[in-house]
Amino acid sequence: MGKTIVINPVTRIEGHLAVKTEVVDGKVAAAFVTGEMFRGFENILRGRNPLDAQQITQRICGVCPIEHGIASIQAQEMIYGVRPPDNGRLLRNIIQGANFIASHITHFYLLSALDFVDIAAISSYTGKDSEMVALREWVKSQVESRAVLPAAPFLPRYAGDYLQDNDLNCAAIRHYLDALDMRRLAQQMGALFSGKMPHAPALVPGGLTEHATAHNITAGQALLEKLRVFIDQAYLPDVLAVTKGFPSYFAAGKGCGNFLAYGVFPESADGQSPFLPGGALIGGNLKAMDPNRVTEDTASSRFSSPSGLKPANGETVAAPDKPNAYTWLKAPRYEGQVMEVGPLARLLVGYADGRNPLVKSTVDGLLAAIGKTPADLPSVMGRHAARAVECKLIADRCAVWFDQLVPDRPTFADFQISESGSGVGLTEAARGALGHWLEISGRKVSNYQCVVPTTWNCSPRDDRGTPGAVEQALVGTTVADANNPIEVARVIRSFDPCLACAVH
Amino acid sequence: MKELTRRSFLQLNARLAAIMGLGANAIPALAEAVAKIASGTAPLLWLQGQSCSGCSVSLLNSDPLTPARLITQYISLAFHQTLSTATGEVAVTAVNTLIDKGGYLLAVEGAIPVGMPSACEFGGEPFARQVARAARKAKAVVAVGNCAAYGGIPAAAGNVTGAVSLTEFLQREGITTPLILLPGCPAHPDWIVGTLAHVLKFGLPDLDEERRPKAFFSRLVHDQCPRFADYERERFAVTFGEGGCLFKLGCAGPLTKADCSVRQWNSGTNFCIKAGAPCIGCASRQFVERLDNPIYVKNPTAVKLS
Fold first, then answer.
1. Is A308 helix (H, G, I), strand (E, B) or coil?
2. How confident is the model at residue B15 (pLDDT cuts 50, 70, 90)?
3. Rounded-to-integer distance, Cα B141 and Cα B182, Å
4. What is the ipTM of this complex?
């Protein structure tokens, strides 16, 4: 007889997530992933000025606002028939790149590292680094104090098999502190051109309201340089150390084995030639990506909307008490298949696509560093490693985009809002493929549907009963201690779930 | 070591006092607050309702009082869903232990779906019930961001979850714990940090008629706008990316109280109007509230109302 283990809430992700697992003989036999928060953005967008959509949809998520803004803008640009001038395109790439860098660094250090790194190691720190000494003294004073929750938010935590090497632990803790600064600098780099972060005012269809000047370009380059140093000297080595410390996690959390990417960071004036290409990798075969093959099932979802609709005709009718529904997420499928999205999907699609030699050399370099083959990458550690090397790939590319900017050239091309039309905006957020489907009638939004990265990854069972990507990845996970299911948490967090996005 | 810590406390307090717009004589008092907070006497409980976590992301952008120092030296962050190591039952127990004990500061990000309680749950409990429990036992409650303060996007026209602001929710529940509103989408990190520090040492800051701290919300964005001279000379931008006053593109600066024009965002790097984007009124009650009051004016059919 199995045992049910519930993690509710799953913290250190964005938003409200719960996971129920059935554990048989110490291994997860079945998993159910639940998104616990619904706001109804698609309903709230109806009847509004379509221009407002790029501001409203940014507020779906404070972690990935830029990507929602860009998806919304691209859907509108398709309808209005306008494209940003080169400076506008480059600055949007830089803003989006900055958001990826902030997000990836945040995910590893703030959200994931404490599942592997032993934060308690700070107590035995003997070095002279003033920040570390301050942290050690604080922890000491907290433990000695009568605080209700001493050393919160770092404690309490699950008991578990944390890293044993105290030098590595202390280096990672130091970098945790640095990461807090680095993610802020990445947001600052974006804000130079987006107006502010999060929730960027300067994004508009046709380009950007902000300009590239000699001053903000050089300021952005200076911030980027600090980030690149951190990525090279802290983020990549720390991820490598964690992969070496937890080799069994290259076999854990394998997942569905299908990968979807829409392509991101246009390199040509027509908005095409994405730096990271799109594609659907199904059963190891790469196919050209076609957004018309996306559908959303609702059998397990708290919506009474018909199942299997394409997003262009999608509906969102809340049904909180629907029988057998266990989540606020719909179940997106591509050609009926469960798909994993995210940095790993982007790299595997790019690797199979082969057109960007930088993706190929990045993946080959990673495989050499960790001594693994591509088959090992769909795993907990593979996802962390893919995210880290993608962060470097994007940060390095931002430097190229900065070089391509010509100060004071136009960033915006004017347009008129169309009387009617339909468009789709496809891009990538840090956590995976993001699509917005927009229909305009009478110069108002008549339908708006978002299919978001975590909607794919944390998808529930579809109409045929096939579990979603994380649900599949959890099956087979060994749980050593039912009261401290840290292994389950590690598998979930490797996907970098963002639940505000997923449900919206 | 002790001396160094004290000195660094004082330095940080000087910066904090500057952020809060306080004089130098407030610095020693703040140092006491720091000592008091560090000993765990007034922890901060941060709860998320129907939110996007944008205000949490914004808080992490705090500078120069950066997050590591904020958490370890200024605010005893007892629980935060995105940052706490505690997960699952460990997290639920941590939050409930804190609520049982009482006497903490409560920060709430997000709206509350009173019409559809299962539209937001934490540990199997409807958020509405959790936040009511938490607010009753708190010393003070800070509604962080437009959603908590005024309802924001979840409570805008088209609201299907019966979302309401924390303000309205506390009224309905008859909860009289002192409340401070920090609207903004997101709230500025200085507004959050400055307000929490003020409450911890001096009690409630001076609030306006909408319960916003006067230190941050006493003037219109328009009044301190870098394009104010353009407005005076009637030089108006008619499309995006142009110089001039942005009023004709729908700028809500003349209707929105906040100090963005002088404080700016992301370590003083930029802000909406400086970046050529109209103020969208994200700190105002009217933000996205109605269908017939669009954010932008970009063609003749989309007429901006008041």
1. coil
2. low
3. 11
4. 0.97
- CATH for A39-143+164-477? 1.10.645.10
What are the residue boundaries of the structural domains of chain B, listed by start?
Answer: 2-216, 219-306
> How close does chain A come to B68, measured CA to CA in Å?
6
CA distances to A468, B4, B35, B203 from B29, in Å: 54, 18, 10, 12
Report how far residue A282's alpha carbon sits from residue A325's, in angstroms, rounded to the nearest whole number: 28
pLDDT score at B301: 43
Q: What is the pLDDT of residues A418-469, one digit of tens each?
A: 999 999 999 999 999 999 999 999 999 999 999 999 999 999 999 999 999 9
| Both tokens assigned to B40 | 């765990």
- Return the CATH superfamily for domain B219-306: Cytochrome-c3 hydrogenase, C-terminal domain (4.10.480.10)
Q: What is the DSSP letter of B281?
A: -
What is the chain B residue with the closest CA to A145?
B39
CA distance A201 to chain B (A): 6
Top pLDDT among B61 and B305 is at B61
Residue of A180, A187, A201 lying closest to B66 (CB–CB): A180
pTM comes to 0.95
> Would you say how long chain A is, in residues?
504
For an interface test with B, the pick among A4, A16, A431 (most B C-beta atoms closer than 10 Å) comes out as A16
CATH number of B2-216: 3.40.50.700
Cα distances (Å, whole numbers) of residue A164 to A239, B37, B116, B229: 15, 32, 47, 63
Task: Provide the total of helices (H) and of strands (E) in chain A, helices listed first.
Answer: 15, 13
The answer, yes or no, to whether the previous bond of A156 is cis (omega within 30 of 0) is yes
Residues of B annotated as part of the active site = 52, 55, 147, 185, 222, 225, 245, 251, 260, 272, 279, 282
Cα dihedral sign, A281-A287-A292-A297: negative
d(CA A168, CA A173): 9
Q: Give the residue extent of every domain in chain A.
A: 39-143+164-477
